[in-house]
Amino acid sequence: MSSEITKQIQEIESSAKKDQKAKLEKYKQLLSSIFSKRKTEDLQTFLAHLADEETPLVISRQLLSEYAENLAKLPEELHKEVAEYSLAKLENRVVAFEEQVSQIRENLANIYERAEEHLKAAAVLKGIPLESGQRVLDPKYKATIYIRIARLYLEEDEAYQAEIFINKASVLMSKIKSKRLLRQYQASFARIQDYKRKFIEASLRYYELSQADLNDEERILSLESAVICAILASAGPQRSRLLATLYKDERSSKLDIFPILEKMFMDRVLRKEEVGSFEGVLKPHQQAKLPDGATVLQRAVIEHNLLAASKVYNNILFDELGALLDISADKAEGIASRMISENRLEGSIDQSQRLIFFNSKKSNSLVLWDKHITEACTTVNNILEILEHRHPAFVKEVSDKIK
To answer: Which distant-in-sequence residues (6+ apart) come within 8 Å of 114 by Cβ?
Structure first.
């Protein structure tokens, strides 16, 4: 403790015992002097006096507000040291100084975040009293803090911790009008679904962001994330619809990963060498191994290839399917059985003959072919109708010759 500062505080207390206004002014002058000298011991001594229960709240609250504001103007290392000390001293008196403590915590979190100490920054922000009931807080302020904490946890791949705070923010989002905050919430929510391997939901959220009011680079990154999650999702009707949406978006053709998107949309069987290049764009959590030892991507490719095979074959032996999927016959049977039971694959299994029978519809490539033929025929008919309307004699002459 600084004996000099302690002495000056005692002089202020004794010289202006009854005149609170004069006492406050003298304290402010001392505070200004302490911050100009930037001595750790002096700053801590003054803070300890403010935190003392014997110091009247009418004095300590005003001074602590100025103290918190001036802390942010100190060099970062000194700011951090004094802020940490301040929070420890004020821990038992948070109810009396909620606003001031919140300000100190926000500024300290900024320092940790700039230093990329994301977990420390999140821990500091978690201490902000948002639900105490002692003061009425703007929903936007509360949502901003919750979303910021979630984003900090996501920077360290702590998806489950991030989800806790995104869920708290979710309750407030109906009251939020800030587009920037809404986009931050949507991006965080999408990333959490991505980390939890809920790839369909994540892809849909990313795709929404790719169409939002963002800059071009952010929209393309969101679109790429949507495509990656769609590729990693479990095969089935919902994924097929999502692949179709992404494939038809003209921006997708400019992505480096478009070839694999196209092959999946066209229900073409993917080979190992074709998947290798795609593996390089995946994030660590997207390369995680599942309980059966396969990666998320391997599972997605196996299920896709099985679905693609169902568009080509009416039936296939377990052994042949295993060879096609590059897995054992028993594993191929198990995957097919699970997909059929989950209504992601139309078919049935005859275990006595070791056969799988498929009842799938045409592949996307055949559907597209039919669509193109239909469009061509419609166009020809339209041209004939126009000719007949404008040049009836010519059309009649040509028709008679054909007959």
So the answer is: 76
